[in-house]
TrEMBL record:
Locations listed in the record: Cytoplasm
InterPro entries on file: Ig_E-set, Rho_GDI, RhoGDI_dom_sf
Organism (species): Marasmius oreades
Region spans: Disordered: 1-23, 144-171
Domain of life: Eukaryota
Cellular component terms (Gene Ontology): cytosol; membrane
Gene Ontology molecular function, alphabetical: GTPase activator activity; Rho GDP-dissociation inhibitor activity
GO biological process, one term: Rho protein signal transduction
UniProt protein name: E set domain-containing protein
Feature: compositional bias, Basic and acidic residues: 1-11
């Protein structure tokens, strides 16, 4: 159950005076300023063409998984939170927290699909707490994307971070709240997961 503090912690930063524009479908963007060459190139980079598009139903974005990647991971080991399985994988981390090696560089990757429309201003928010005290907050923009071609997912790699180290860092479990939302406040994923630090992966 989320609390008022959780909502405040996961509040996205805002730019004073900025107001998001009204959302448009991919088809509306395709028709927009069709004679503008630079805009046509931008639309092509997002996979927007003049042809018809699928009906705009359901969520604009489906978050498929969250992955922790590090060059220090043993060969063949992956750390992936599957968000398609009804969050069962995520819930299991409460009993069996994900193990992250202390003092190593790692980065978060998010895999998602854009079902329809154009997304922009979509961001990933993450708050890490230990014993109820906030120890870290991450906010990363996903960028602008058109509908996923052939339903293939997009992958966004976030900037590398270094995991804490030391006996104090290794004590206890870290509780993470993650959210994917856009500038309009529409939430596409909202989930909690848990990890602990150890001397080895």
């Amino acid at each position: 159950m989320s609390t008022h503090d959780d909502h405040e912690d996961l509040k996205a930063s805002t730019t004073p005076g900025y107001k998001p524009t009204a959302a448009k479908t991919a088809e509306e963007y395709a028709r927009l300023d069709a004679e503008d060459e630079s805009l046509a190139r931008w639309k092509a980079s997002l996979g927007i063409t003049g042809g018809g598009s699928a009906p705009a139903t359901g969520p604009k974005v489906t978050v498929l998984s969250l992955e922790l990647h590090s060059d220090t991971l043993p060969p063949g080991k992956t750390i992936v939170l599957d968000l398609k399985d009804g969050k069962e994988t995520v819930q299991n981390t409460k009993k069996e927290p994900i193990v992250i090696k202390e003092g190593v560089e790692y980065n978060v990757r998010i895999h998602f699909r854009v079902n329809h429309s154009i997304i922009s201003g979509v961001r990933y928010l993450q708050v890490v707490k230990r014993s109820g005290i906030k120890v870290d907050k991450l906010e990363q923009m996903l960028g602008s994307y058109g509908p996923s071609p052939d339903e293939k997912p997009y992958t966004k790699n976030f900037e590398p971070e270094e995991s804490p180290s030391g006996m104090l860092a290794r004590s206890g479990t870290y509780d993470v709240k993650s959210r994917v939302q856009d500038d309009d406040g529409e939430i596409y994923a909202d989930f909690s997961w848990h990890f602990k630090l150890a001397k080895e992966w």
